Amino acid sequence: KFKPRVFSGIQPSGGLTLGNYLGAIKRFVDMQDSGIETLYCMVDMHAITVWQDPEALRRQTRELAAGYLAAGLDPAKSILFNQSQVSAHAELGWVFNCVARMGWMNRMTQWKDKTTGKNAEQASLGLFAYPSLMAADILVYHATHVPVGEDQKQHVELTRDIAAKFNHDYKVDFFPITEPVIEGAATRVMSLRDGSKKMSKSDPSDNSRINLTDDADKIASKIRKAKTDAEPLPESMEGLDARPEAKNLVNIYAALSGMSKEAVLGEFAGQGFGAFKPKLADLAVASLAPISVEMGRLMEDPAEIDRILGAGADRAAAIAEPVLAQTLDIVGM
Ligand code: ADP
Ligand code: NA
Protein backbone atom coordinates (compact mmCIF):
# COMPACT_ATOMS: atom_id res chain seq x y z
CA LYS A 1 0.00 0.00 0.00
CA PHE A 2 2.82 2.42 0.86
CA LYS A 3 5.53 2.96 -1.69
CA PRO A 4 9.02 2.75 -0.17
CA ARG A 5 10.32 6.17 0.82
CA VAL A 6 13.29 7.15 3.00
CA PHE A 7 13.33 10.16 5.35
CA SER A 8 15.88 11.25 7.93
CA GLY A 9 17.12 14.44 9.55
CA ILE A 10 19.89 15.95 11.62
CA GLN A 11 19.71 18.95 13.96
CA PRO A 12 21.76 21.98 12.90
CA SER A 13 22.73 22.53 16.51
CA GLY A 14 26.41 22.98 15.71
CA GLY A 15 29.17 20.65 14.59
CA LEU A 16 28.88 17.30 12.85
CA THR A 17 30.80 14.41 14.37
CA LEU A 18 32.15 11.11 13.10
CA GLY A 19 29.14 9.62 14.96
CA ASN A 20 26.70 11.60 12.80
CA TYR A 21 28.71 10.61 9.72
CA LEU A 22 28.85 6.85 10.34
CA GLY A 23 25.47 6.54 12.09
CA ALA A 24 23.60 8.72 9.62
CA ILE A 25 25.11 10.70 6.71
CA LYS A 26 27.27 7.98 5.16
CA ARG A 27 24.23 5.71 5.16
CA PHE A 28 22.03 8.46 3.69
CA VAL A 29 24.47 8.55 0.77
CA ASP A 30 24.32 4.75 0.36
CA MET A 31 20.51 4.85 0.33
CA GLN A 32 20.20 7.60 -2.28
CA ASP A 33 21.48 5.14 -4.91
CA SER A 34 19.05 2.37 -3.92
CA GLY A 35 16.37 3.49 -6.37
CA ILE A 36 14.08 4.51 -3.48
CA GLU A 37 13.01 8.15 -3.10
CA THR A 38 15.11 9.81 -0.36
CA LEU A 39 14.43 12.99 1.66
CA TYR A 40 17.03 14.44 4.05
CA CYS A 41 16.29 17.35 6.29
CA MET A 42 18.03 19.92 8.49
CA VAL A 43 15.66 19.82 11.46
CA ASP A 44 16.09 23.40 12.62
CA MET A 45 12.85 23.38 14.61
CA HIS A 46 14.30 20.60 16.75
CA ALA A 47 17.47 22.62 17.26
CA ILE A 48 15.56 25.46 18.96
CA THR A 49 14.21 23.15 21.69
CA VAL A 50 17.43 24.40 23.30
CA TRP A 51 18.14 28.14 22.84
CA GLN A 52 20.25 28.90 19.75
CA ASP A 53 21.86 32.17 18.82
CA PRO A 54 19.94 33.21 15.65
CA GLU A 55 23.02 34.02 13.54
CA ALA A 56 24.72 30.82 14.69
CA LEU A 57 21.63 28.79 13.79
CA ARG A 58 21.60 30.24 10.27
CA ARG A 59 25.30 29.42 9.85
CA GLN A 60 24.99 25.93 11.34
CA THR A 61 22.06 25.12 9.05
CA ARG A 62 24.15 26.00 5.99
CA GLU A 63 27.11 24.13 7.45
CA LEU A 64 25.01 21.01 7.93
CA ALA A 65 23.79 21.30 4.33
CA ALA A 66 27.44 21.69 3.24
CA GLY A 67 28.24 18.54 5.24
CA TYR A 68 25.48 16.59 3.49
CA LEU A 69 26.66 17.75 0.06
CA ALA A 70 30.38 17.29 0.80
CA ALA A 71 29.73 13.72 2.01
CA GLY A 72 28.10 12.90 -1.32
CA LEU A 73 24.40 13.69 -1.13
CA ASP A 74 23.30 14.85 -4.55
CA PRO A 75 20.34 17.27 -4.79
CA ALA A 76 19.46 15.66 -8.14
CA LYS A 77 18.99 12.30 -6.39
CA SER A 78 17.82 13.30 -2.89
CA ILE A 79 15.51 16.03 -1.66
CA LEU A 80 17.59 18.20 0.71
CA PHE A 81 15.72 20.86 2.68
CA ASN A 82 15.13 22.79 5.84
CA GLN A 83 12.33 21.63 8.15
CA SER A 84 11.09 25.15 8.94
CA GLN A 85 10.57 25.86 5.22
CA VAL A 86 7.88 23.16 4.96
CA SER A 87 5.16 24.27 7.35
CA ALA A 88 3.28 20.96 7.09
CA HIS A 89 5.76 19.48 9.62
CA ALA A 90 4.64 21.85 12.38
CA GLU A 91 0.96 21.49 11.49
CA LEU A 92 1.02 17.70 11.54
CA GLY A 93 3.18 17.91 14.68
CA TRP A 94 0.29 19.62 16.47
CA VAL A 95 -2.14 16.90 15.45
CA PHE A 96 0.34 14.32 16.77
CA ASN A 97 0.69 16.22 20.07
CA CYS A 98 -3.00 15.41 20.45
CA VAL A 99 -2.47 11.72 19.56
CA ALA A 100 0.68 11.00 21.63
CA ARG A 101 0.19 10.37 25.36
CA MET A 102 2.07 12.13 28.18
CA GLY A 103 3.10 8.72 29.55
CA TRP A 104 4.75 7.78 26.23
CA MET A 105 6.76 10.99 26.18
CA ASN A 106 7.76 10.56 29.84
CA ARG A 107 9.30 7.20 28.99
CA MET A 108 11.69 8.57 26.34
CA THR A 109 15.21 7.83 27.64
CA GLN A 110 16.72 10.79 25.79
CA TRP A 111 14.33 13.13 27.62
CA LYS A 112 15.20 11.49 30.93
CA ASP A 113 18.95 11.68 30.19
CA LYS A 114 18.77 15.31 29.15
CA THR A 115 16.88 16.33 32.28
CA THR A 116 18.64 14.30 34.99
CA GLY A 117 20.58 16.31 37.49
CA LYS A 118 18.87 19.40 36.15
CA ASN A 119 15.42 20.69 36.85
CA ALA A 120 13.04 19.22 34.26
CA GLU A 121 10.78 22.16 35.15
CA GLN A 122 13.27 24.42 33.36
CA ALA A 123 13.42 22.38 30.12
CA SER A 124 11.38 23.76 27.21
CA LEU A 125 8.01 22.23 26.40
CA GLY A 126 9.43 21.76 22.89
CA LEU A 127 12.22 19.51 24.21
CA PHE A 128 9.63 17.28 25.85
CA ALA A 129 7.42 17.18 22.75
CA TYR A 130 10.18 16.91 20.15
CA PRO A 131 9.71 13.17 19.41
CA SER A 132 6.12 13.94 18.41
CA LEU A 133 7.35 16.55 15.90
CA MET A 134 9.89 13.96 14.72
CA ALA A 135 7.00 11.56 14.07
CA ALA A 136 5.40 14.30 11.94
CA ASP A 137 8.69 14.86 10.05
CA ILE A 138 8.65 11.20 9.06
CA LEU A 139 4.94 10.57 8.55
CA VAL A 140 4.15 13.75 6.60
CA TYR A 141 6.02 11.96 3.77
CA HIS A 142 4.49 8.55 4.53
CA ALA A 143 8.14 7.50 4.90
CA THR A 144 8.55 3.75 5.24
CA HIS A 145 12.24 3.67 6.26
CA VAL A 146 14.31 5.91 8.53
CA PRO A 147 18.10 5.45 8.66
CA VAL A 148 19.28 6.54 12.13
CA GLY A 149 21.89 5.72 14.77
CA GLU A 150 21.06 3.44 17.68
CA ASP A 151 20.24 6.42 19.96
CA GLN A 152 17.19 7.29 17.84
CA LYS A 153 15.61 3.82 17.87
CA GLN A 154 13.15 4.63 20.67
CA HIS A 155 11.95 7.76 18.88
CA VAL A 156 11.22 5.79 15.71
CA GLU A 157 9.30 3.28 17.85
CA LEU A 158 7.26 6.19 19.21
CA THR A 159 6.59 7.23 15.61
CA ARG A 160 5.17 3.75 14.98
CA ASP A 161 2.99 4.03 18.10
CA ILE A 162 1.65 7.41 16.98
CA ALA A 163 0.87 6.12 13.46
CA ALA A 164 -0.89 3.05 14.88
CA LYS A 165 -2.93 5.07 17.38
CA PHE A 166 -3.95 7.61 14.73
CA ASN A 167 -5.00 4.79 12.36
CA HIS A 168 -6.91 3.10 15.20
CA ASP A 169 -8.60 6.21 16.64
CA TYR A 170 -9.82 7.41 13.24
CA LYS A 171 -10.47 3.90 11.82
CA VAL A 172 -8.21 4.44 8.82
CA ASP A 173 -5.11 2.82 7.35
CA PHE A 174 -3.54 6.15 6.52
CA PHE A 175 -0.06 6.26 8.08
CA PRO A 176 2.55 3.55 7.44
CA ILE A 177 4.26 1.79 10.34
CA THR A 178 7.78 3.03 9.65
CA GLU A 179 10.87 0.83 10.00
CA PRO A 180 14.03 2.19 11.63
CA VAL A 181 17.10 1.20 9.59
CA ILE A 182 19.95 0.80 12.06
CA GLU A 183 22.78 -1.01 10.36
CA GLY A 184 26.46 -0.87 9.54
CA ALA A 185 29.54 -1.45 11.67
CA ALA A 186 29.15 1.74 13.75
CA THR A 187 25.53 2.39 14.72
CA ARG A 188 26.75 3.79 18.04
CA VAL A 189 30.12 5.53 17.84
CA MET A 190 31.57 6.07 21.30
CA SER A 191 33.66 8.92 22.74
CA LEU A 192 37.39 8.62 22.01
CA ARG A 193 38.07 9.47 25.68
CA ASP A 194 35.47 7.28 27.41
CA GLY A 195 34.06 4.10 25.86
CA SER A 196 30.93 4.27 28.01
CA LYS A 197 29.69 7.55 26.46
CA LYS A 198 28.46 8.12 22.92
CA MET A 199 30.47 10.46 20.73
CA SER A 200 28.58 13.74 20.82
CA LYS A 201 28.94 17.32 19.67
CA SER A 202 27.86 18.41 23.15
CA ASP A 203 30.77 16.70 24.95
CA PRO A 204 32.94 19.47 26.50
CA SER A 205 36.15 17.63 25.45
CA ASP A 206 36.98 18.31 21.78
CA ASN A 207 39.40 15.33 21.86
CA SER A 208 36.43 13.04 22.58
CA ARG A 209 35.16 13.40 19.02
CA ILE A 210 36.23 13.87 15.42
CA ASN A 211 34.41 16.80 13.85
CA LEU A 212 33.69 16.73 10.12
CA THR A 213 35.39 20.15 9.98
CA ASP A 214 38.66 18.85 11.52
CA ASP A 215 41.67 18.98 9.19
CA ALA A 216 44.01 16.05 8.52
CA ASP A 217 46.42 16.89 11.38
CA LYS A 218 43.63 17.19 13.92
CA ILE A 219 42.01 13.92 12.85
CA ALA A 220 45.34 12.07 13.13
CA SER A 221 46.21 13.63 16.49
CA LYS A 222 42.82 12.80 18.02
CA ILE A 223 43.19 9.17 16.96
CA ARG A 224 46.75 9.05 18.35
CA LYS A 225 45.42 10.36 21.69
CA ALA A 226 42.36 8.09 21.78
CA LYS A 227 42.07 6.09 25.01
CA THR A 228 42.99 2.40 24.53
CA ASP A 229 44.66 -0.38 26.51
CA ALA A 230 47.97 -2.26 26.33
CA GLU A 231 46.54 -5.56 25.03
CA PRO A 232 47.00 -6.69 21.41
CA LEU A 233 43.91 -7.02 19.23
CA PRO A 234 42.16 -10.39 19.62
CA GLU A 235 41.12 -12.92 16.95
CA SER A 236 37.37 -12.36 17.35
CA MET A 237 34.91 -9.62 18.37
CA GLU A 238 33.99 -11.47 21.61
CA GLY A 239 37.55 -10.77 22.73
CA LEU A 240 36.62 -7.05 22.74
CA ASP A 241 33.50 -7.35 24.89
CA ALA A 242 35.18 -5.98 28.02
CA ARG A 243 37.30 -3.44 26.07
CA PRO A 244 34.85 -0.73 24.92
CA GLU A 245 37.49 1.77 23.73
CA ALA A 246 39.31 -0.87 21.67
CA LYS A 247 36.04 -2.17 20.26
CA ASN A 248 34.99 1.34 19.24
CA LEU A 249 38.18 1.86 17.21
CA VAL A 250 37.69 -1.48 15.45
CA ASN A 251 34.06 -0.56 14.68
CA ILE A 252 35.19 2.79 13.25
CA TYR A 253 37.86 1.08 11.11
CA ALA A 254 35.29 -1.38 9.75
CA ALA A 255 32.71 1.32 9.02
CA LEU A 256 35.20 3.61 7.25
CA SER A 257 36.84 0.84 5.21
CA GLY A 258 33.66 -1.06 4.36
CA MET A 259 35.32 -4.22 5.74
CA SER A 260 33.55 -6.54 8.19
CA LYS A 261 34.75 -6.31 11.81
CA GLU A 262 35.98 -9.89 11.54
CA ALA A 263 38.06 -9.00 8.48
CA VAL A 264 39.59 -6.05 10.38
CA LEU A 265 40.59 -8.39 13.22
CA GLY A 266 41.85 -10.89 10.65
CA GLU A 267 44.27 -8.22 9.47
CA PHE A 268 45.33 -6.84 12.89
CA ALA A 269 44.97 -9.71 15.42
CA GLY A 270 48.07 -9.97 17.60
CA GLN A 271 49.10 -6.35 16.94
CA GLY A 272 48.89 -3.59 19.54
CA PHE A 273 47.50 -0.08 19.20
CA GLY A 274 50.97 1.25 18.37
CA ALA A 275 50.50 -0.49 15.01
CA PHE A 276 46.72 -0.17 14.63
CA LYS A 277 46.27 3.53 15.41
CA PRO A 278 48.48 4.88 12.57
CA LYS A 279 46.56 2.68 10.10
CA LEU A 280 43.25 3.94 11.48
CA ALA A 281 44.52 7.52 11.35
CA ASP A 282 45.49 7.12 7.67
CA LEU A 283 42.11 5.64 6.84
CA ALA A 284 40.22 8.36 8.76
CA VAL A 285 42.23 11.14 7.13
CA ALA A 286 41.72 9.64 3.65
CA SER A 287 37.95 9.32 4.21
CA LEU A 288 37.22 12.50 6.18
CA ALA A 289 39.74 15.20 5.26
CA PRO A 290 38.32 15.60 1.70
CA ILE A 291 34.86 16.15 3.24
CA SER A 292 36.22 18.88 5.47
CA VAL A 293 37.94 20.60 2.51
CA GLU A 294 34.78 20.39 0.37
CA MET A 295 32.63 21.76 3.22
CA GLY A 296 34.94 24.77 3.41
CA ARG A 297 34.61 25.32 -0.33
CA LEU A 298 30.82 25.07 -0.26
CA MET A 299 30.57 27.47 2.69
CA GLU A 300 32.18 30.17 0.53
CA ASP A 301 28.95 30.33 -1.49
CA PRO A 302 26.08 30.44 1.01
CA ALA A 303 23.66 31.73 -1.65
CA GLU A 304 24.13 28.51 -3.62
CA ILE A 305 23.39 26.44 -0.49
CA ASP A 306 20.24 28.50 0.11
CA ARG A 307 19.19 27.96 -3.50
CA ILE A 308 19.58 24.16 -3.18
CA LEU A 309 17.61 24.13 0.09
CA GLY A 310 14.87 26.35 -1.35
CA ALA A 311 14.41 24.06 -4.36
CA GLY A 312 14.40 21.05 -2.02
CA ALA A 313 11.72 22.65 0.17
CA ASP A 314 9.45 23.13 -2.86
CA ARG A 315 9.78 19.45 -3.79
CA ALA A 316 9.26 18.33 -0.18
CA ALA A 317 6.16 20.53 0.24
CA ALA A 318 4.65 19.02 -2.91
CA ILE A 319 4.65 15.64 -1.13
CA ALA A 320 3.81 16.87 2.39
CA GLU A 321 0.91 19.23 1.70
CA PRO A 322 -1.50 16.62 0.26
CA VAL A 323 -0.72 14.29 3.20
CA LEU A 324 -1.44 17.10 5.67
CA ALA A 325 -4.65 18.03 3.85
CA GLN A 326 -5.88 14.42 3.98
CA THR A 327 -4.93 14.17 7.66
CA LEU A 328 -6.94 17.27 8.54
CA ASP A 329 -9.87 15.92 6.55
CA ILE A 330 -9.72 12.61 8.47
CA VAL A 331 -9.65 14.53 11.77
CA GLY A 332 -12.73 16.56 10.74
CA MET A 333 -11.19 19.87 9.78
P1 ADP B 1 23.36 14.54 17.94
O1 ADP B 1 22.93 13.21 18.52
O2 ADP B 1 24.80 14.60 17.51
O3 ADP B 1 22.89 15.69 18.78
P2 ADP B 1 21.14 14.39 16.15
O4 ADP B 1 20.32 14.09 17.34
O5 ADP B 1 20.63 15.40 15.21
O6 ADP B 1 22.59 14.76 16.57
O7 ADP B 1 21.42 13.04 15.40
C1 ADP B 1 21.63 12.97 14.01
C2 ADP B 1 21.83 11.54 13.56
O8 ADP B 1 23.15 11.10 13.94
C3 ADP B 1 20.87 10.53 14.22
O9 ADP B 1 20.53 9.56 13.25
C4 ADP B 1 21.69 9.92 15.31
O10 ADP B 1 21.25 8.62 15.64
C5 ADP B 1 23.06 9.89 14.67
N1 ADP B 1 24.12 9.89 15.69
C6 ADP B 1 24.42 10.90 16.55
N2 ADP B 1 25.44 10.56 17.34
C7 ADP B 1 25.82 9.28 16.98
C8 ADP B 1 26.83 8.37 17.42
N3 ADP B 1 27.67 8.70 18.41
N4 ADP B 1 26.92 7.16 16.80
C9 ADP B 1 26.07 6.83 15.80
N5 ADP B 1 25.09 7.64 15.33
C10 ADP B 1 24.97 8.86 15.91
NA1 NA C 1 20.76 12.29 18.84
From TrEMBL:
UniProt-annotated binding residues for L-tryptophan: D137
MF-aspect GO terms: ATP binding; tryptophan-tRNA ligase activity
Gene3D superfamilies in UniProt: HUPs (3.40.50.620), Tyrosyl-Transfer RNA Synthetase (1.10.240.10)
InterPro entries for this protein: aa-tRNA-synth_I_CS (IPR001412), aa-tRNA-synth_Ic (IPR002305), Rossmann-like_a/b/a_fold (IPR014729), Trp-tRNA-ligase (IPR002306), Trp-tRNA-ligase_bac-type (IPR024109), Trp-tRNA_synthetase (IPR050203)
Keyword presence, Iron-sulfur: no
EC number: 6.1.1.2
Gene Ontology annotations for the cellular component aspect, listed alphabetically: cytosol
Stretch list, region Disordered: 193-212
Catalytic activity: tRNA(Trp) + L-tryptophan + ATP = L-tryptophyl-tRNA(Trp) + AMP + diphosphate + H(+)
Keywords (A to Z) from UniProt: Aminoacyl-tRNA synthetase, ATP-binding, Cytoplasm, Ligase, Nucleotide-binding, Protein biosynthesis
Enzyme class: ligase
Domain of life, source organism: Bacteria
Locus of motif 'KMSKS' region: 198-202
Motif ('HIGH' region): 12-20
Function: Catalyzes the attachment of tryptophan to tRNA(Trp).
Subunit structure: Homodimer.
NCBIfam families per record: trpS (TIGR00233)
Full protein name: Tryptophan--tRNA ligase
Annotated organism of origin: Pararhodobacter oceanensis
